[in-house]
Amino acid sequence: MFGFISFYFPGAPMKVRATFMPYHRIVGGLSFVGCSIQVIIGHTQLAAWDGGSCFYSLSCENGIEFVYIFLMISLVLYVIGVMCCIIPPKWRRQKTPDEEK
Known about the structure:
By secondary structure, the protein is mainly α. Helices cover 74% and strands 0% of the residues. This is Cytochrome b561 domain-containing protein.
């Protein structure tokens, strides 16, 4: 909510936006990682409880176990990629010369 108010409210001063940015980045990153962990847990529970015995032997008729494995690996790699893009300070947006005036 604070991110929405501070970045999309047209009258918010730049000082307020700059103050909220670190918290916005931290909460957003933690929320993203937390949601991704929940998705992986959900897929794992689906495979363990609802998938039947074919998930353990990789012998399902339609090959759905390979789809689940591919989705989980893809999600983990995507989360790692996104977090590697938002964590390093040198990759953050720098002020343009017009903004520094």
